[in-house]
UniProtKB/TrEMBL annotation:
InterPro entries cross-referenced by the UniProt entry: Thi_PPkinase (IPR006282), Thiamin_PyroPKinase_B1-bd (IPR007373), TPK (IPR053149), TPK_B1-bd_sf (IPR036371), TPK_catalytic (IPR007371), TPK_catalytic_sf (IPR036759)
The keyword ATP-binding belongs to this UniProt entry's keyword annotation: yes
Sequence ranges assigned to domain Thiamin pyrophosphokinase thiamin-binding in this UniProt record: 141-207
Protein's UniProt name: Thiamine diphosphokinase
Pfam annotation, one family: TPK_catalytic
Record EC number: 2.7.6.2
Keywords: ATP-binding, Kinase, Nucleotide-binding, Transferase
Length: 213
């Protein structure tokens, strides 16, 4: 089971929704993300938020769909997105995609990226996608990666501390047993020269980012 959560980030940053049509997924909307989904003809399975980012007219229109909703006060200890993610993890999915969580306010964007840790702790793959990027967190070990023409640039960033033993094979800029500290730009904007490559590391957490211009 895959769960896709759309938050209320800038609409122009959203990925191509046709990539998800015809696939069996559970959709959830967060705050203005509910409005965006309904505009695109997608009826979410549930809605989360205090809905302070929609006006009265938009909220009345959304209410006409009678969606299963989890409404919260605006003053709370977790963001609407974190509450939605808690619910999604409780459904024991194979994967969760977070859309509409980049752009806009920087504090929200940085917090949203840190929410990827929840998936790592729960053993569930969580990926953030927008129009230009895809990123997720990876544990130590040996991993295979495939070339994607739509997302040719691949970057590796230490997430919560240094990464040790990073080895890249099949890349334009290979590495062997490299130590990568926090704040390093060494592994920004690499590319695969083969259709399939591998990367491995012995300790730390890596953020894997696939991007295009």
């Amino acid at each position: 089971m895959k769960i896709i959560i759309l938050a209320g980030g800038p609409e122009e940053r959203q990925p191509d929704f046709s990539l998800f049509t015809g696939k069996k997924v559970i959709w959830a909307g967060v705050d203005r993300g509910v409005f965006y989904l309904l505009k695109k003809g997608i009826t979410p399975d549930c809605a989360f938020g205090d809905f302070d980012s929609v006006n009265d007219e938009e909220r009345q229109w959304m209410a006409s769909f009678q969606l299963p909703s989890f409404e919260y006060d605006s003053e709370k200890d977790k963001t609407d997105l974190e509450l939605a993610l808690d619910w999604a993890l409780g459904q024991n999915p194979e994967q969760i995609l977070l859309l509409g969580v980049t752009g806009g306010r920087l504090d929200h964007e940085l917090a949203n990226i840190q929410l990827l840790l929840h998936g790592m702790e729960a053993g569930v793959s969580i990926e953030i996608r927008d129009k230009q990027n895809r990123f997720t967190l990876v544990k130590p070990g040996l991993h295979t990666i495939q070339q994607e023409t739509d997302f040719p640039y691949i970057s590796f960033l230490p997430f919560n501390g240094p990464v040790t033993g990073l080895t890249l094979k099949g890349f334009k800029y290979p590495l062997q047993d490299q130590y990568v500290p926090m704040g390093s730009t060494l592994c920004i904007s690499n590319e695969l020269v083969n259709k399939i490559g591998t990367y491995s590391f012995s300790s730390g957490i890596l953020m894997l980012i696939k991007s295009h211009d």
